[in-house]
Every structure is written in structure tokens, then in C-alpha cells.
Design goal:
Elements: H1 13-71, H2 74-83, H3 118-121
Length: about 130
């Protein structure tokens, strides 16, 4: 409207301050993004190491189970005992007696529970066969 009035085409102080603040916020967001991405990578690497350890332990367990099965094989066990000149002998089936398990004592109100022997509590099986007589 007023043609004689000079038009200023530069930015004001408020616009410059706003641009600087915007640049700082964007730079801070970039640094924060890089930091969080680096943390994600560290966590992913730690998880991968743990998964590798777990798979290695599973493989070790499988190998140990196979070795245990080999050692508990009755035929191979018998052969090893013969090679070692062991004085262990096989027990005939007629010499083994089957004993039924006693039911566990139940406690009723006010009634004392019978005490078991320490060998019975520990799961020890009494010897039923005199090995010297075989």
C-alpha cells in the first residue's frame, strides 16, 4: 500500500533465535538416536553371546548324555569288568527278593508320626543277598 516504505528482507532477531534453537534440538535428537541405536547393538550382541553359550551348553549336555549311555551299556560294562579282572559277580534272579513298599505314615490330628530309621529315610535298600554264599 505504501510504495515509498522500504521493505526489509532480512530475518528478525526472533527468527534467528528460533532457527538456532531448532538446529540445536535436531542435533540433540540425532545424538540421542545414535546413542540409543548403539545401546540396541550392544544388547543384541550380548544376547547373541548368551544364545551361543546356551547352545554350547545344550551340545555339551547332549554329548555327556551319549557318553553316559555308552558307559551304562550293560554289555560294554560287563566287558570292562572282565578286562579289569573285577571280582564282581552276577546275581542269579532267584536270589533277589521283592519287598513291597510300605505306605508313608500319615499324620492325623494329635497323633504322633512314627519315626523311620535313618537308612530308610535316606532311601537305602537293605541287603537281601549274602554275596559270600554265591
Amino acid at each position: 500500500m505504501n510504495r515509498r516504505r522500504a521493505v526489509r528482507e532480512n530475518f528478525g532477531a526472533g527468527a534467528v533465535i528460533l532457527l538456532i534453537l531448532t538446529a540445536l534440538v535436531i542435533a540433540g535428537a540425532g545424538v540421542f538416536h545414535a546413542f540409543t541405536k548403539n545401546q540396541q547393538i550392544k544388547v543384541a550382541r550380548a544376547l547373541q553371546r548368551i544364545e551361543n553359550r546356551v547352545s554350547q551348553h545344550r551340545l555339551d549336555i547332549t554329548n555327556l548324555e551319549v557318553r553316559l549311555e555308552e558307559q551304562l551299556n550293560p554289555i560294554l560294562l560287563n566287558d570292562r569288568l572282565i578286562q579289569m579282572s573285577s571280582d564282581l559277580r552276577s546275581i542269579p534272579l532267584e536270589a533277589v527278593k521283592s519287598i513291597p513298599r510300605e505306605p508313608a505314615p500319615t499324620a492325623t490330628r494329635g497323633a504322633p508320626v512314627q519315626q523311620q530309621s535313618s537308612a530308610r529315610r535316606l532311601g537305602a535298600t537293605p541287603s537281601l543277598v549274602d554275596l559270600d554264599s554265591l
